[in-house]
Amino acid sequence: MSSSSPSVADPTVEKALCTLEAGLHQIANLRTDALSNRDRLTMMQRLENVARALPGFSVDLLAQLREQWSPNDFATDSVIDTLADGLRISPAEARARWRAADDLAPRTGLDGDVLDPMMPQTAAAQREGVIGGAHVKVVREFIQHLPACLDTLTRDQAETELATHARVLRPDQLKKVAERLDAILNPDGVFSPSDRERRRNFTMGRQGPDLMSKCTLVADPELRTYLEAVFAKYAKPGVCNPEDSTPHVDDEPSTEAVEQDFRTAGQRQHDAVKAVFRAMLSSGELGRHRGLPVSVIVSMTLSELENAVVDIQQSTEHPELRAYGPPVVTGGGSLLPIHDAIRMAAHAHHYLALFDHRSGRPLYLGRTKRIATGDQRIILHAKDIGCTYPGCAKPGYLCQTHHRTEWSGGGTTDADQLAFVCEPHHRLAGTTSNTWTTTATPAHHPEPGRTQWIPPAHIDPQRTPRVNHYHHPGEYLTRRTEHASRPG
Question: Disordered: where is this region (predicted)?
Answer without folding.
Answer: 432-453, 465-488
